[in-house]
Amino acid sequence: MHHKPDDILEINLSKATSTNDIAKKISLSRPVVIITASEQTKGRGRYNDRKWFSPKDSGLYISIVFSDIDNFDSECLPYITKMISTSVYETLADYNISLFIKPPNDIYTKTGKIAGVLAESKTKGNIVERIISSAGINIKRPDKVPIEIKHKSSYLSDHIKIRENEIDILKKGFLKNLFKNFELVKNKKYSLIDEKFSSYLI
Questions:
Q1: What CATH number does residue 166 fall under?
Q2: GO CC annotation: what is one (predicted)?
Q3: Which of 76, 134, 142, 181 is the most exposed, fewest CB within 10 Å of its CB?
Q4: How far is it, in rounded angstroms, from Cα 163 to Cα 123?
Q5: Is residue 1 predicted with pLDDT exceeding 50?
Q6: Which whole-number Å values give the CA distances from 35 to 29, 62, 97, 99, 197, in the listed order?
Q7: Using N-to-C axis directions, what is the helix angle for 166-186 and 80-93, rounded to 10°?
Q8: What percent of the chain has pLDDT over 90?
Q9: How far apart are CA 189 and CA 195, in angstroms?
């Protein structure tokens, strides 16, 4: 299944606690809802105590809610994080920079972490009703980075000269890759997700 424009609702926010917070609370009116924020005040990682530094206009902060998943069951859940991590990796790889995935959900360059992903789901029994795919991708290094992550983080601007609309360009590429890999999971082609994910590891 390919998503048609009428299937997708896009919500672009100037500021949010996190796009993931919005995604968990939103009432779904379309099979796919895409939420982005220019800034997150409480961006987080896989664990609630892991914060994701998300200053204004410095990265892609995005969550995608899939609810067109009638044939999904719980066997797909181990592959959702792999699906998102693989999609981020493939998007950044188009910039010809050296990358690797550090399992289960971080993407690194040689100089530090450039992206993290978060997968969550809503289930009813063995049926998956909603999948939330979230990612934070560092693009433009801000003037001030917290000292505790300053030398552990990496930004796309550390490696290439970024364009004025780089966030939008990267968003388009990420969604293309995510939708493609979502189809693999939807069609239960788990071995293909595993194969790609494994080839991108350290």
A1: 3.30.930.10
A2: cytoplasm
A3: 142
A4: 40
A5: no
A6: 13, 6, 27, 26, 25
A7: 140
A8: 72
A9: 10
Between strands 100-102 and 106-109, the pairing is antiparallel
User: What confidence tens digit (pLDDT) does each residue in 149-174 have?
Assistant: 888 999 999 999 999 999 999 999 99
Query: Which residues in 146-173 are b (16+ Cβ under 10 Å) and which e?
Result: eeeeeeebbbbebbeebeeebbebbbeb
Give this prediction's pTM. 0.93
Neighbours of 43 (CB within 10 A): 25
Q: Name the domain count of the chain.
A: 1
Give the other-Cβ count within 10 Å of 114's Cβ. Answer: 25
pLDDT tens track for 112-131: 999 999 999 988 888 888 99
Residue 151 CA to residue 67 CA, distance in Å, equals: 39
| Beta carbons within 8 Å of 48's beta carbon, 6+ residues apart | none
CA distance 80 to 90: 15
For 27, the domain range is 5-199
| Statement: residue 189 has pLDDT above 90 | yes
How many Å from the N-terminal Cα to the C-terminal Cα in the chain? 32
